[in-house]
């Protein structure tokens, strides 16, 4: 199964015509995750025909407006659409008060269960887990408390090597699950057949790391090592490295350097400053340090096989 | 001078592609007023090239999301654009806490003076006044505390009737201001010349009444009597009058009935429910009760001479 990322907004600071603030829709193992929710995200979800009623988990990196000001509107729209299923919001401490105050003042509390999971740890945390997927925070370095998020498929069960299995008449269908779970098989004569002789490795797991907003912060490298895809902010080009340092953002070169050192398979860059008209300059700069770089683009869906 | 109204959003409930929630930009006597500020308003201001740095006063009718969720983003954008001049926000009690909490949590307090004028009276109030314009609240009947706003030019000074003035050699330039102020002129022989013989009436004043959201509420009629233009919400057609009553909204027929009974010069209707695809039905219904009706339309500027 593929990892599917739809970019809803990939620009920094203020929303403009055809330049939306950060939001992404991630499909992984039948989960539909929304990451960040700048103003206008709900319209972007409609514009790109994203089935947003499927979203059950929203992850907010930090409380700067261009990452969160669209959240209360989306929550309210779910109410108007008669949503019934739970909605989980993960974000920095304060996000619950921010949203609930607005719902209270507009006298429009949700009819569906709205559950907040407030984050305050400066260490990576496992914040979501089921049988298929895990989500961990990636503490970042920005002007306010900020987390990236690491979405990881869990390793599936081993696959039966049917040719090998059929060689042993004693192995029956009811034994298959034990083999998938990694257990050896013991013949009636007492001989042990090693699991490895009967099964194949499970499909390799895919993973997605979302890292925005952040200064150049190599501390994240061990956590994002060899991920299938890394989204790393690249607000500036290298000519504004000084400004990136002051504002705790990154340059395209820095994003690519992180990708290179973390040996990720693909790098997506975004969060472009409005000062640059030609986005290709970001791609050129990043590619000279990390070849497998692609530009985030609003409405574009990337499939990582 | 004309009264100029630019419609930024005229749809109800959730923002959709090409259907924005309520916001209007009003130009009256060199004032630039923003009325309501649903999500996406700042992008609409850019889309229609409204010089939004000129806005100094924002009037918020009520705290439902489709009238206010764009406000915090606009306030933040003014900060990023290095605004220095004062910004005044008029709206229901609670609006200050709603905005300041978000600015606090995003650690992005404005560098410019941001002044809130919270409203809670159920009677009409004069909330803004200078030498040219007055703004009054128009208490409305909706599910939460809501005010419309009445924007009124002040009566200017009388105009000199130069033919009459020149007939009296004794009247000098230094007397003109007294005449404009309405004073009679006394000749040296003691004869009084009535001001009316020397001056003409000032230009008639123009006025604009914004009334949204509200149920059918004839109590507003005395306050909006004979205004130059009335914006009245028309969320539903007459076939959904029952739904209008329950949700405390109005039908096109009811908006037109208010306009007719208030003898206004022009009626603009908007706040259309997304259930109706054909907006012309609103116009047809309203026009059969009040001929001078026009449909609000996003990006459209109406000039009332």
Could you characterize what this model shows?
- Chains A, B: It catalyses: Endonucleolytic cleavage of RNA, removing extra 3' nucleotides from tRNA precursor, generating 3' termini of tRNAs. A 3'-hydroxy group is left at the tRNA terminus and a 5'-phosphoryl group is left at the trailer molecule.
- 2 copies of one chain form a homodimer.
- Chain A has helices spanning 41-47, 65-68, 71-80, 95-105, 162-166, 176-180, 195-198, 221-224, 241-247, 252-261, 280-287; strands spanning 3-9, 23-28, 31-35, 57-59, 87-92, 114-119, 126-129, 133-139, 147-153, 159-160, 185-186, 192-193, 199-200, 207-211, 229-233, 266-270, 293-295, 301-304.
- Chain A has 305 residues and is of the alpha/beta class.
- The first copy, chain A, has 2 domains: 3-156 and 203-304, 4-Layer Sandwich (Metallo-beta-lactamase, Chain A); 159-200, no CATH class.
- In chain A, strand 3 (31-35), helix 1 and strand 4 form a beta-alpha-beta unit.
- The longest helix of chain A is centred in the first third of the chain and has 11 residues, at 95-105.
- In chain A, 44% of the residues are buried.
- Chains A and B meet through helix 1, helix 3 and helix 4 of A and helix 1, helix 3 and helix 4 of B.
């Amino acid at each position: 199964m593929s990892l599917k990322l739809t970019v809803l907004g990939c620009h920094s600071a203020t929303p403009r015509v055809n330049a939306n603030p950060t939001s992404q829709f991630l499909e992984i193992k039948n989960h539909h995750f929304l990451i960040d929710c700048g103003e206008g995200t709900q319209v972007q979800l409609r514009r790109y025909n994203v089935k947003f009623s499927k979203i059950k988990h929203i992850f907010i990196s930090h409380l700067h407006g261009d990452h969160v000001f669209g959240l209360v509107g989306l929550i309210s729209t779910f109410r108007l659409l008669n949503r019934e299923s739970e909605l989980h919001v993960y974000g920095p401490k304060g996000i619950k008060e921010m949203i609930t105050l607005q719902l209270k003042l507009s006298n429009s509390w949700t009819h569906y269960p709205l559950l907040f999971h407030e984050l305050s740890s400066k260490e990576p945390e496992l914040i979501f887990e089921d049988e298929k997927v895990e989500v961990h925070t990636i503490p970042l370095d920005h002007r306010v408390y900020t987390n990236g998020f690491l979405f990881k498929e869990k390793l599936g069960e081993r696959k039966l090597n049917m040719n090998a299995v059929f060689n042993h008449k004693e192995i029956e269908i009811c034994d298959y699950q034990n083999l998938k779970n990694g257990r050896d098989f013991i013949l009636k004569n007492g001989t042990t057949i090693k699991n490895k002789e009967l099964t194949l490795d499970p499909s390799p797991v895919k993973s997605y790391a979302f890292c925005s907003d952040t200064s150049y912060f190599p501390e994240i490298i061990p956590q994002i090592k060899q991920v299938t895809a890394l989204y790393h902010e690249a607000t500036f080009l290298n000519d504004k490295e000084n400004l990136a340092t002051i504002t705790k953002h990154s340059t395209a070169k820095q994003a690519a350097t992180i990708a290179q050192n973390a040996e990720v398979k693909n790098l997506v860059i975004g969060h472009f400053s409005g000062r640059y008209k030609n986005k290709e300059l970001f791609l050129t700069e990043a590619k000279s340090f990390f070849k497998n770089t692609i530009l985030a683009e609003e409405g574009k869906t990337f499939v990582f096989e």
